[in-house]
Structure formats: C-alpha cells, structure tokens
Amino acid sequence: ICRGFSCSAVRNVVIKQLTIIGGGLMGAGIAQVAASTGHSVKLVDTSDDILKKSVKGIEGSLKRVVKKKFADKPEAGEEFIQKVLQNVSTSTDAGSAVQDSDLVLEAIVENLKIKQDLFGRLDKLAPAHTIFASNTSSLPISDIASSTSRLDRFGGLHFFNPVPMMKLVEVIATSATSQETFDSLLNFSKAMGKVPVSCKDTPGFLVNRLLVPYMMEAIRLHERGHGSKEDIDIAMKLGAGYPMGPFELADYVGLDTIKFIVDGWNAKDPGNPLFAQSELLNKLVAEGKCGKKTGEGFYK
Ligand code: NAI
C-alpha cells in the first residue's frame, strides 16, 4: 500500500550515513553517539567556528567516556577516539551534505519557520530514499514536515540531554509517516545503543508532556505559598525517589525553554489549566535568570 506516495521510495532504509543539521548542544551529542556506534556523520552548522567548537566538544566528551571505558588501556582509548572522530566530517553547506545521506536529522533553533525553510530546501536536494527527522521538543512534526513532499519519509527522533548519557529516544510518527520509515528510525535508535519508545505526534510526546506540567505545577504550588522550593525538591527526591527535585530540574532544563514550551501549548489550548502561565517563571525569565546556563534560576 503506497498511501498515495511514490512506491519507489517506500522501502526499509538501513541508516548508515547521516547528516545532522545543527552542531549545538543536541546535534553534537547525537553526532558523537552516532559516530561512536559506527555511523558516518556529516555535521552541518552555519559557520566553521561553530563547527570547530562542536568537534572540540565531541572530543572532550569522548575523552571522558574513554577514561571510564578504557581505564586500564589508555592507548586503546586514544585509538577509539581517533576512529570515532574519523566518522565525523563537517560542512557549512547543508545542500551538498545531504547528497548521499540515508537520514537528515535536524537539531537547529526551535523555530517552526526556520525549520520549515530548511527542510523545504533540502527536500529538493536530498535523494528520494532519504528520511528526514526533527529533534524538536515542542513543535508538531507534521507542521515541520508540511514544507516537504516526503511526508511518508518524515518523522521525529527526540533525544535527551546529555545525549551520550541518556538512554531514551522518542520515535515519533505523524499520520503520514510510513511504517517502513518508522521501523528504520526505530532500528537506527537501537543501533545507536538507545532505547526507543513509539510516540504519536502530540504536544510534548511522552516525556515532556508529563514533565513540563509537573514542573509548572511545582512552581504554582510554591507561588500559592504551599511549600518552599527547597522543601518541594526534598519531598520529590525522598518521597518519590526522583533524582532531582522539580526546581533543580527546571534550572537544569532552562527556565526560558520551559516558558517557551508552555507558552506554545497555551496558545494552542488556552483553556487547559496544565498549560497555564506562572508569574514567577515569567519574572525570572524576564530578568535573564534562566537556570544553570546563566548561573541563576530558582537557585544560584
Ligand atoms: P543549540 O542552540 O545548542 O544548537 C542549535 C545549533 O543550530 C546552533 O549551533 C546554531 O548555530 C545551529 N543553527 C541554527 N540555524 C541553523 C541553520 N539554519 N542551519 C544550520 N545550523 C543552524 O540548541 P539545542 O539545545 O541543541 O537544540 C536544538 C534542537 O533540539 C531544538 O529543536 C530543541 O528543541 C531540541 N532539543 C533540545 C533539548 C535540550 O535539552 N536542549 C532536548 C531535546 C531536544
């Protein structure tokens, strides 16, 4: 069954060569793990300076991995690093980087229009069999895919920060994603040593859909004067067994990121109390207190 799309393109693609667009926090992390598991990675960003930093970051992270993994064999560790780095090449030209790719994975700025423009352009340049995927945290995959003519070969691959440490990948199918594409993305996640879960294209998929309203309710609980930040964090760590309390987690994720996600959901579903705004969160973000990355959020 071709569901109205070109039959020739519908096949199970084994992903060996991939192009990652965006060499920031997530893109570099995904590149590191993909290259470490034997995939050939082209990493694309807007400038050579950014790409140099990405590769330096990957090298630094690999050194930490190797220190543990090859503790008693430093030479084998160095060899492993060199082998992994050989699997990574960089480019500022996305159009030529996608030429022989099985998968184009996008991890650029969280902006629908910019993602649509990128994919719309690459759709005309990438081979027919190439699968497109976005690492977006909060935008509907189907909205991003709508700028292309390969809706059957478009899905979501949502990794977690820090990518080398976090085992989970959410694999997202839109209503148009073919079973072959979905299976290829699942198999690729497994080949990267990750554990995939299947998701529908719904706001926040599984993890963020539960985690963001939870953090927001912790903030509102505190705003109502029903508990201090410290006590709420201790309560969830010792009472629920969570490794971080909600305020510690919010500082780690970034308060601006949480606000951006909630505002987006709130705009689409204004009546939903789970997506209601918080004055305290708005104030901290307005003051530039975004959490760990700015040195201060709920905590210093
Ligand atoms: P980042 O800001 O660290 O990196 C984004 C990179 O994309 C930058 O290096 C930027 O120069 C580059 N870029 C922007 N526009 C580009 C373009 N048109 N072409 C090529 N490169 C371009 O952002 P981060 O945190 O890595 O996030 C990237 C994506 O991953 C976003 O969609 C975000 O929602 C998602 N995500 C983020 C997570 C996180 O914890 N930070 C977790 C899971 C998903």
Automatic annotation (TrEMBL):
Keywords: Acetylation, Differentiation, Fatty acid metabolism, Hydroxylation, Lipid metabolism, Mitochondrion, NAD, Oxidoreductase, Spermatogenesis, Transit peptide. GO terms for molecular function: (3S)-3-hydroxyacyl-CoA dehydrogenase (NAD+) activity; NAD+ binding. The keyword Oxidoreductase applies. Its EC number is 1.1.1.35. It comes from Monopterus albus (Swamp eel). One of its GO terms (cellular component) is mitochondrial matrix. Mitochondrial fatty acid beta-oxidation enzyme that catalyzes the third step of the beta-oxidation cycle for medium and short-chain 3-hydroxy fatty acyl-CoAs (C4 to C10). Plays a role in the control of insulin secretion by inhibiting the activation of glutamate dehydrogenase 1 (GLUD1), an enzyme that has an important role in regulating amino acid-induced insulin secretion. Plays a role in the maintenance of normal spermatogenesis through the reduction of fatty acid accumulation in the testes. Homodimer. Interacts with GLUD1; this interaction inhibits the activation of glutamate dehydrogenase 1 (GLUD1). GO terms for biological process: cell differentiation; fatty acid beta-oxidation; spermatogenesis. It is an enzyme of class 1 (oxidoreductase). The lineage of its organism: Eukaryota, Metazoa, Chordata, Craniata, Vertebrata. CoA binds at residues 61, 68, 137. Pathway: Lipid metabolism; fatty acid beta-oxidation. This is Hydroxyacyl-coenzyme A dehydrogenase, mitochondrial. Its main location: mitochondrion. It catalyses: (3S)-3-hydroxybutanoyl-CoA + NAD(+) = acetoacetyl-CoA + NADH + H(+); (3S)-hydroxydecanoyl-CoA + NAD(+) = 3-oxodecanoyl-CoA + NADH + H(+); a (3S)-3-hydroxyacyl-CoA + NAD(+) = a 3-oxoacyl-CoA + NADH + H(+); (3S)-hydroxyhexadecanoyl-CoA + NAD(+) = 3-oxohexadecanoyl-CoA + NADH + H(+). The record marks 158 as: Important for catalytic activity. Residues 18-202 form the 3-hydroxyacyl-CoA dehydrogenase NAD binding domain. Belongs to the 3-hydroxyacyl-CoA dehydrogenase family. Gene3D superfamilies: N-(1-d-carboxylethyl)-l-norvaline Dehydrogenase, domain 2 (1.10.1040.10), NAD(P)-binding Rossmann-like Domain (3.40.50.720). The keyword NAD applies. NAD(+) binds at residues 22-27, 45, 110, 115, 137, 161, 293. It is found in: Mitochondrion matrix.
